[in-house]
Amino acid sequence: MPCDDILLHIQGYPDQTTRSAIDAAVTLAEGLSGRISAFAVELAVGYMPNLVFDHLVGMQGIAKETMERSAAGCREGLDYFRARAAAAGILNDTSAVAADMGLEALKRAQEARAFDFSIYCPSVGGPDQVLAETLILMSGRPVIVLPHGHEGALGNVVLAWDGSAPAARAMNDALPVFKAARAVTVLTVTGDKQVDHIAPADHAVRHLRRHGVRAHRVEIEPEGRSTAAALEHHLKAERADMIVMGAFGHSRFREVLLGGVTEHMLAEAPAAVWLSH
C-alpha cells in the first residue's frame, strides 16, 4: 500500500532544515514504498520606509538580510533533498513560494491539502508551535512530526487508542505505516475514558489484522501520571519509532487550540508523531 504523494516541508529561516532531517524523511518515504516532494516558503518582510527609524535601528538592512537568509536556506535544502530523493529513486518534485512573514504556516497548510500526508521536521530546539498546529488543524491531511535525531525507521509503531472518532480516523489514515512496521501495538491508557462504551481496542486490533497488520493490544495504568505522560513513558520504555494518534483541537479565528495530550506529544514525544485531525 504505497504512499505515492508525500510532502516534506523545507525551512530556510530562522532554523534551516538539516540534512539529517531530510535524510530521515527520505528514509521514511522509502520504508513506505512511497514517493516524495518538497516544499519551501521563502519569507518576505514588508518594510515601510521611515528615514529616522531606519537610521536608528537599520530596519531595511534587517529585512533584507532576513529575506536573503530565508531564500538561501530554502535553496540549499531543496537542492540537497532533490539529490537525495533522486538517488533513492523516489523523487516527485520540488517547489517554493514567497510569503509575508506570519503567513508561512497558512501557505504550508494550503499546499499540504493535496498530498497523502506531510512531514514536518522541527529544529533542535523543538517544534514551532504555530506552524505545527496550523498544519495539523488546517491542512485537512495527516501530519508526521519527525523530531530531531529520528532516522526515519518504522520498526515499532504504536496506535494510541481511546475509542474516539479522531483515533479511528488516525487508524485508517495510517494503514500504510502499520503495514510497513515490524511491530504494531494498540495502546490504551486505562481509566482515561470509558473506552468499552465507545469502540473497544479489540475491535481496532481486529480491523488491523483484517488488513494484514499483526497488531496486538496493550493496556497501561497511568500510575498517577497524566494520559500524555503515561504515553510518553511507554514510548520510551518500548523504544517506539512512531506513535499514531488522533489530534483534538480546533481553530477559532486566529487562535489555534489543541488538546493537552496532542500538545504534550508535539513537545515531548521521544518518537515520531503521526497526527490526524
Fold and architecture overview:
- The chain has 277 residues and is α/β, with parallel strands linked by helices.
- The protein folds into two domains: 6-145, HUPs (Rossmann fold, 3-Layer(aba) Sandwich); 156-276, HUPs (Rossmann fold), CATH 3.40.50.
- It is built from ten helices and twelve strands.
- The strands form two sheets. A ten-stranded mixed sheet has the order 3-2-1-4-5-12-9-6-7-8, sandwiched between helices. A two-stranded antiparallel sheet has the order 10-11.
- β4, α5 (129-138) and β5 form a beta-alpha-beta unit.
- The radius of gyration is 20 Å and the shape is globular.
- Mean pLDDT is 88; it is low at 250-258.
How many strands in all?
A: 12
- Catalogue the unreliable spans: 250-258
Global morphology: globular
- The H-level CATH homologous superfamily of the largest domain, spelled out, is HUPs
